[in-house]
Amino acid sequence: MATFPPPVPNARVPLRVRCGVTMRLHLSTHGQVPAAWPSPKGHVQPHRNHLPRRRNPRRVVLHEHDEVKVAEIALEPKAPSPVPIVEEEMKATESTEGTLAEAAKPVSNGHSEPHRSNLPRRRIVKRIIFHDTDEDEPTAESSSLRSVAAAEVPLPESPSPADAYAPPPLADQSQLQLVLPSMSMAYVDDDALTQLPGHTADEPYTHVVSVRRGESAGISRSFENRCTYLRLTLAPRDSSIRRAGLGLSDAQLRAARDFLAELCPDPAASSGVRILIATPPEHPTDAMSLLACYTAFVTSKEVDAVLRAIDTEEGFMSTWKGEVSEDEVERVEKIARAWSYMSQIVKPSVAA
Question: Region labeled Disordered — which residues (predicted)?
């Protein structure tokens, strides 16, 4: 570099200077008054500053006592005039009546907005009460006797919808029902093998699914007297309710489903076993839910379709029909569609 610092570059000349072009803008609107609102009569545009102020005139309200006073004044007899001139009395009477009529009319000073100070006062109206007796007012003796009589008569208790359709308790009847060639169900209080209905020495039960009451819910499996037991213990319930709904838990339903599917993968085939589903009286919902869950699992049918087919079957006893509600059907359907280690075993029988 010959020189330091280097020279500053020349400023760039604009194009209009290089070309010699000069432009001027003439404004002709400077100082002119803008045109008014397009109205031939010079009307100003409405604005809140141009509107008249709103007044709140005081209204003249005539109450009931004022109207009575005006009526009394109008009805008062006029004092006799000392001058016996009939025409002057008529004129005075007409002028007085006109004045009273004008005073009775409410004065209107313009419309006012509704407000609580402008509304008429609410008056308390005396209610008319009609008694049952012929007298105007009931005596204290009759009212006291009536209250005592009403207290002595108890009101009938209306039964709940669940109790209205509850089956009667079956203490001495087992209602043994054959479901499949190798499966039955019945009402049983004691699940001892010798106490089970339909058990004989020639045709003994090989497997029993026992639904029983207990202090806490649970699942147990045992082998007694050459018979395999699957005991499903129900949780305690309110003794005042005659009909019990579905008391089995999801785990108990799933265990019973797999237990029965392992014994009878194909419901139509005879597998050499004899099964009994035992449930206490007034617990048909648990037995029917257990049966529908197993049948829907091995046949791939819906639980609702299985229960409807049972309801239309003439060979089924009425005590086992219509015991599962819609909510309980949805719950059993979810368990029947749940995965299990028996899912791959029952599929070939369904396809066949």
Answer: 32-54, 102-121, 131-169
